[in-house]
Amino acid sequence: MSDDSWRGGTRWWDPRVILGCVLLSTGAWGQSAEAGRTEDGGLGPSGAPDAGQTVSGGLGPSEPADAGQAASAAPGPAETPDAGPSDARRVEVKLHGVSVTVTASSVLVEGREPGRYGPANLLDEDPGTVWAEGAKGSGAGEWVELSFPPDTPVHSFLVTPGNPKSAKLYKANARPRKARLELKLAEGRKLDYVLDFPRDFPAGGAIYVHYRRQFAVKSARLTVLTVWPGSRYLDLCLGGFVPVFRGPEERFLPTFLGTHRELAPTLAEFMAKPNLVFKLLPPEKSGVPARLRAYSRVPHNGPLPPPEEEFNMHHITSGWSRFSQDLAGNTAGASVQRELFRLVPAPGAKGYVFDPIAPPKRPDSFSNFRVHWARVEDGWYVVGVDVLYREQTADD
Predict the structure, then answer these.
(1) How high is the pLDDT of residue 109?
(2) Low complexity compositional bias: what residue ranges (predicted)?
């Protein structure tokens, strides 16, 4: 229950409280009083909630996520067994065998399920679970932090703003407008990033942070700087803050824990070896094609024109080296230009599209690509690659 409830220090023997207890016992008081904060700072609506929403924090019921949007079929990491209301802000979870301590500046605590909005939800890649802050105000200044064991090779991060469960809940709850990601590295080094989420950033979308300087990461803190207010609730939500761990080196190239089964490490696998993208194609026996489309010039936003060349990547027998070199060059160029990429739901809610977050800085920049991801059988695979030889700049 938030601090906005029971203003004025109402005592247990107050006649109004006694009357309320009687009404609750008879079922005459509609919804639970463990409601989230509404825009005026008071309790949530007392009537029946709209479809897809509840008055418990405004975060929606625990219904299954829409098909095609779940980033992992396997169950997410669980909180430690003794995690209760008193330690809801700090929990330890196991992610691909690595112990991660997750700490939050505050947590929205629901009386019926104290850990429902806890920070452990940030690591499970499940759009049906979120962390929600529980402090007064807009949520600006609230933060979450991941702490790792010594010498943990953390390769990248995937940050999902807001409540991604549905477009309605995404708009109803507050979400980050701008956030700072601070990485504390070995030997006292640091990396800082500012993540911008424009108003039209889609529900279920995420920013992928791909830093080229590979150091062991001690901790990663994400601080919300400014906020897009919710249309109905003050609770600020964050859908995911997922680290990607490097595994053993394989022929001088890194492998990643959780590849194929979960989306974030599979993105890292692609970024590390884009010219080997054919290893990330769905099994040919699945019957799911993987299309390669080549363009000479396309807009940064909006629909693509018809491709100049198109192939089923399962059946390319010649000329692949040309496309793989272009793809490797474009991903490298985009990484040099800016280490931030966007992941947005594909049209029709079937998978995701991954590409650079900004258009090239110069007309001659060869730094763009688009990769289409879909869940096939029990894993995430590349089902399309758009090789962009040149993309229009913002000034074109």
Answers:
(1) 87
(2) 64-77
CA gap 345, 203 in Å, rounded: 8
Strands 154-161, 206-209: pairing kind: antiparallel
Dist CA 204 CA 210 (whole Å): 19
Give the separation between CA 383 and CA 15, rounded to whole angstroms.
64
Question: How many helices (H) and strands (E) would you count in the chain?
Answer: 4, 17
CB 43 within 8 A of CB 96: no
* CA distance linking residue 227 with residue 361, whole number of Å: 28
Token output for 139: 């949520």
User: HSE of 161 in the Cβ direction (CA atoms, 13 Å)?
Assistant: 34
For residue 41, what pLDDT is reported?
Answer: 32
DSSP type of residue 36: P
Structure tokens at 392: 């229009």
Domain that holds residue 281: 273-388
The pLDDT tens digits of the residues spanning 313-339 come to 888 766 677 788 888 888 888 888 889
Sign of the alpha-carbon torsion through 169, 170, 174, 179: positive
* pLDDT of amino acid 365: 61
In a domain, 261, yes or no: no
* Full DSSP string of 230-282: -SSB--BEEEEEEEEEEEEEETTEEEETTTTTBHHHHHHHHHH-GGGGGGGSP
CATH number of the domain enclosing 224? 2.60.120.260
Q: What is the pLDDT of residues 262-311, one digit of tens each?
A: 999 999 999 999 988 988 999 989 999 899 998 877 666 677 788 888 88
- 231 and 92 in one domain? yes
Judge whether 72 lies within some domain. Answer: no
In a domain, 396, yes or no: no
Per-residue b or e along 306-343, where b marks 16 or more CB atoms closer than 10 Å to that residue's CB = ebeeebebeeeeeeeeebbebbbbbbebbbebebbbbb
Question: Do 94 and 242 belong together in one domain?
Answer: yes
> Is 174 part of a structural domain of the chain?
yes
Separation in Å, CA 334 to CA 75, 91, 337: 33, 36, 5
Greater pLDDT, 161 or 40: 161
- The reply to whether 234 and 293 lie within a common domain is no
β partners of residue 193: 181
What percent of the chain lies above the pLDDT cut of 90? 47
Number of domains present in the structure of the chain: 2
